Protein: Lycopene cyclase domain-containing protein
Organism: Cellulomonas wangleii
Amino acid sequence: MITFAYLGALLVSIGCLALIDRRFGLAFWYDARRSAWTVGLGVVGFLLWDVAGLLLGIFARGDSPHMTGLLLAPELPVEEAFFLTLLCYVGLLAWRWFDRTAEHRAAGRGPS
């Protein structure tokens, strides 16, 4: 039986991040092209890291009844790509938030 619980939770979380992004204009609503490159390169880099770990026997796919069972490659579940997207998007939003806060403080306007 295929269940989409984990994948669904990841998609909802990414959607909520997009709402926060839109509200504050931090990443994609500030510069979509640069944000897409940033998140995309991060995901590709982490996927290469995962593949290297799998090939070296450091990483292994765990079984969970909440995952779809669909694989991008042997031992690499499709949910991993969405998790890495979530991870990179959170990192980008946090960086932009702290950067914007530092700019406002340097200008003497306080945090926004």
Summary: Residues 5-106 form one domain.
